[in-house]
Amino acid sequence: MDIYISRNGSQEGPFDIMEINAMIADKFLKTYDYAWYEGLAEWILVKDVPGLELPQIASSSRKSKKVIYLKSENCFEGLLSDIVKLAMRAVVELKYTVENVNDSVGIITFKTGMTWASFQGASCSITFIEIEEGKYSPQSAGKQNVSGAQLVALDFGGAKRIADGVVDHMKKLASA
């Protein structure tokens, strides 16, 4: 079976199942990267490809650990799912609304209430990029929402600052 992979915005392949297993073992390919092979309607996570020999992870290393913020590297250290949960906590504590969460990929989206630039608030996202095993750098983005009678929502970086504020709150929570 010819398998194609998609990671970091590029597609590669085809590979056979043995090559995919070797790339996972060498930590070149992550189980949360995407794969496609003939017969699939859409891309799936690599971990869901049938016939893979996924490495066994000791149960002690999979246990939830405290997320810590490494100021010198500007990243969070811990399990990706725990980092995303921390982001969810920060969003809720700042009184925003969580819209979507994917803790296997490391993305959270949320919406604010009304802002100075938009009656409809801002839509923001935080994506956690793995920079080293167990270390994730937050990448934030935001945009002002427009709908209804409002024709324009000028944004001079305000929505991004809101998303950055959530990351700053996460840093405080991780340091407490």
What does this structure look like?
With 176 residues, this protein is α+β, with helices and mostly antiparallel strands. It has two domains: 3-56, Dna Ligase, domain 1 (2-Layer Sandwich), CATH 3.30.1490; 68-175, Kinase associated domain 1, KA1 (TATA-Binding Protein, 2-Layer Sandwich), CATH 3.30.310. The protein has four helices and ten strands; from the N terminus they run E-E-H-E-E-H-E-E-H-E-E-E-E-H. The protein has a six-stranded antiparallel beta sheet with strand order 5-6-10-9-8-7. Strand 5 (68-70) and strand 6 (75-77) form a beta hairpin. The protein starts with a strand and ends with a helix. Residues 57-62 and 148-155 have low confidence and may be disordered.
- How would you state the average pLDDT, rounded? 82
What's the tally of helices?
4
CATH class of the largest domain: Alpha Beta
Report strand order across the widest sheet.
Answer: 5-6-10-9-8-7
> Mind summarizing the main beta sheet?
6 strands, antiparallel
CATH topology of the largest domain: TATA-Binding Protein
Secondary structure tally: strands: 10
